[in-house]
Amino acid sequence: MILPPQAAAEYQSGQQIAECRYLPLDREAMREALRQQLNDDLLYRMLIEERPHQFAEALVVVAESAIRSQRDIISAIESVIAMPAYQQRVLAYAPGTARFIPKAHGVFFGYDFHLSPKGPQLIEINSNAGGALLNAILVRAQTACCDSVGLNASAAQNPEQAFMAMFIEEWHAERGLQPLHSIAIVDENPLSQFMLPEFLLFKKLFEQHHITTVICDPAELDYRDGTLWHGDRPIDLVYNRLIDFGLEAGALRPLCEAYLAEAVVVTPHPRAHALYADKRNLAVLTDETALRELGVAAETRALLLGGIAHTDCVHKEDAEALWAARKQLFFKPAKGYGSKAAYRGDGVTKRVFGEIVLQGNYVAQALVRPTERQLKVENEMIDLKLDLRQYVYKGQTQLTSARLYQGQTTNFRTPGSGFAGVATIAGDDKGDRSAALALT
């Protein structure tokens, strides 16, 4: 992304970046950079014209210490997830498919954080986090801008290369040195999905590495003769974008059977979601007694308890106390995704709260208010909230991104919202000083 000349001159003249609240960007220059990178008129129209709020014309500036704190929290979580005692505990409430142990680890874990006065707070983990390849485009667009003003892009230098290497590593874990010939990117009704442009970008990436790739609905797959098929094409690996994390629906039976028979490599897979992304796991990770019982070291316990928004499973017997405390809580379905059926407690009605308690598959999480700024968008001042996502593979961050939004949750449909690039500066990670952002 490109800074307007005046803004660049101010930064280069010695102004303290840590004191700046906004980093304005040149909207037209950014879009031209995107056009050149995509080199595809159809994709450009899909991303910029049909989805005008996919990308925010903003750069988020975060203290280096805040990023380090997030990575420390991630490392602590990963160390606990690797413990057999933890796995035994969380798999007790997981679907049966999660008990199958593949060799593949699972791609694109998304660790989502809010910034708070006491430092970053993890609010959830996703096991098939979308947007990584879209954010890689932003990384390349912002590189010149960051270099020119002494900022550091908070991501790998070549995210696409890292992503491709990750898929190859997943394949080699299951198949050794056998060549990878074909990939199916699978989601329900993919042509109608908001993230279709990213599917197309992945297809291009895989095909650049001579891997035949299809984007398909799971109903288009057939398991026969020990092979998963898409039409007359055998499928070696499935890049799984489905929201049925346990592959439990009847329509997914061919895919599920092929996965359990080790006839196809699936990533991410049911076990990955069960170990990482079921929100009931956060209740374990923020329960000091449970952590002690699991044998988690004191230093790791301190990181978890201080760096994850406290979470409890919702039980009928706690209904009265939860209702009384609701204004400080966020209610989320245990297997939820994309903020579906999630409710801030200060806005939940008595009727909806009763349904939450009755269903019994919700968690109540301490409300961590996101960073919020009033910014000028299309000549109007609006409030925009911020969260940060770390895309992680095997405990290592591949890419850091931000999402700007209005209202309760991210939706990519309101002015000023969308993915935003992230740059880092030296500074404190406490409170609102930890982030500065701007829109032209």
Cα distance spanning the termini: 12 Å
Low-confidence parts lasting 5 or more residues at pLDDT below 50?
1-22, 431-440
Count of DSSP strands? 20
Secondary structure: helix percent: 25-40%
Radius of gyration: 22 Å
Structural class: alpha+beta
Main sheet overview:
9 strands, mixed
* Number of H/I helices: 15
Oligomer: single chain
Number of domains: 2
Strand content: 25-35%
> What would the principal axes of the Cα set say about the shape?
globular
Mean pLDDT across all amino acids: 86
Verbal overview:
Helices cover 36% and strands 26% of the residues. Mean pLDDT is 86; it is low at 1-22 and 431-440. Helix 8 (196-208) links the parallel strand 5 and strand 6. It is built from 15 helices and 20 strands. The strands form 4 sheets. Strands 1, 2, 3, 4, 16, 17, 18, 19 and 20 form a 9-stranded mixed sheet that branches. The protein has a 4-stranded parallel sheet with strand order 6-5-10-11, with helices on one face. Strands 12-15-13-14 form a 4-stranded antiparallel sheet. Helix 2 (27-38) packs antiparallel against helix 3 (41-49) and helix 2 (27-38) packs across helix 6 (132-148). It has 440 residues and is α+β, with helices and mostly antiparallel strands. The longest helix has 18 residues, at 64-81.
